[in-house]
Design a protein that fits this description.
alpha/beta, binds 2-succinylbenzoate, seven-stranded parallel sheet, TIM Barrel, 12 helices, 15 strands, Enolase-like, domain 1, globular, four-stranded antiparallel sheet, binds magnesium ion, 2 domains
Length: about 375
């Protein structure tokens, strides 16, 4: 199969509410939507980058440049038999994993649609429904936080993740735990703490949390291994696990008890599945994280989370938790048991609303074989 056309679009899609973490906040999704065409079929992907290098080093400017200058020409020059080959085609390009993932997702979607097979089936998924939770941003006060959490619980979410930072960690977590003693609860520091906070972080052990996500530096594994030995609550790595090798290092060093897998963070689905398999062999549970994706990236994440070792609820909430109107005509809705249904339609199953996509597009580029 030869890709005949690649289209990139930078979009601007407002969130239903501001999303604030320990290091940044966003009012809108400003990622890149990727379209590939071949043999009369179309595939869609998404690089969930933003306007700043706050989560990882990528932004919509860097991803746009790397996609246009390197990745698109490499893919257009290749002859593909299977989407798994995309990672080898891109291997010469260091880093820039969200840029790579956008195109890789689109090729998986295209291939599934051509073959009449769902992404779940192509990846080896075993679940019809995936368990999901909701990631709750930093709030201005505890009463406001409790009101937000109460709202999500009323919608049916049964697992809550609180974004934390120094000054917004022990007290909000205590307040949520006291109000809902049985709730599946976890926290995410997004790399704001250091080993000097070890004693402070130990106070979170009192709240029966599922895990503490990425407390230390975004590229650290070593210090997380030290911290893990001082905590009862399992550490979950997010930012630090950017490849299957990083997963192996973290597992061997016992830096974490759980891994958050985001296929965009690791450069695509092929590496995401490999991390899933490595964790499974080592006896570590994984769950699917999110980057506040549009319906395109969301469908990719849902398919991935149908694999067997995704045994903890993911940050894969229903589309309406993120956007009033999404760029797909078939958004995911939350089932009363805090699950989303895994699509069985060919490819990712996402049906793009091209009219609305046009309306939220702020830049466009097109590439064809030279
Ligand atoms: O650290 O998991 C994170 C969103 C953007 C960037 C990083 C993170 C997040 C979330 C939200 O926590 C996950 C989601 O609901 O998509
Ligand atoms: Mg995280």
């Amino acid at each position: 199969m030869k890709i005949e056309r690649i289209e990139l679009r930078r979009i601007h899609l407002p969130y239903v509410r501001r999303f604030e973490t320990s290091g940044w906040s966003h009012d809108a999704h400003t990622g890149i939507v990727v379209r590939v065409d071949a043999e009369g079929a179309t595939g869609w992907g998404e690089s969930p980058v933003s306007d700043g290098p706050w989560y990882n080093e990528e932004t919509h400017h860097t991803a746009w440049a790397i996609l246009g200058e390197f990745l698109a020409p490499m893919l257009l020059a290749a002859d593909l038999e299977h989407p798994r080959q995309v990672r080898e085609i891109f291997a010469r390009v260091r880093g820039n994993r969200m840029a790579k993932a956008g195109l890789e997702f689109a090729v998986w979607d295209l291939y599934g649609r051509m073959q009449g097979r769902s992404l779940k089936e192509l990846l080896g998924g075993t679940r019809d429904r995936i368990q999901v939770g909701v990631s709750v941003p930093i709030h201005r006060s505890i009463p406001e936080l409790l009101e937000t959490v109460e709202g999500y619980l009323a919608q049916g979410y049964r697992r809550v993740k609180l974004k934390i930072k120094p000054g917004w960690d022990v007290e909000p977590t205590r307040a949520v735990r006291e109000r809902w003693p049985e709730l599946m609860l976890q926290v995410d520091g997004n790399s704001i703490y250091t080993l000097e906070h070890a004693e402070h972080l130990r106070r979170l052990d009192a709240f029966d949390l599922l895990l503490i996500e990425q407390p230390l530096e975004h590229d650290d594994i070593f210090d997380h291994a030290k911290l893990a030995r001082t905590l009862q609550t399992p550490i979950c790595l997010d930012e630090s696990i950017v490849s299957p090798s990083h997963a192996r290092w973290a597992i061997e060093l016992q830096a974490c008890g759980v891994i958050n897998i985001k296929p965009s963070r690791v450069g695509g689905l092929a590496d995401a599945v490999e991390i899933h398999d490595r964790a499974q062999e080592a006896g570590l549970p994984v769950w699917c994280g999110g980057m506040l994706e549009t319906g395109i990236g969301r469908a990719i994440n849902v398919a991935l989370a149908s694999l067997p070792n995704f045994s903890l609820p993911g940050d894969v909430s229903a589309n309406d938790r993120y956007f009033h109107r999404d760029i797909v005509v078939n958004p995911f809705t939350l089932n009363p048991d805090s699950t989303l249904a895994v699509p069985t339609a060919p490819g990712s199953g996402a049906q793009v609303d091209e009219e609305y996509l046009d309306a939220v597009t702020v830049a466009r580029a097109e590439f064809r074989p030279s």
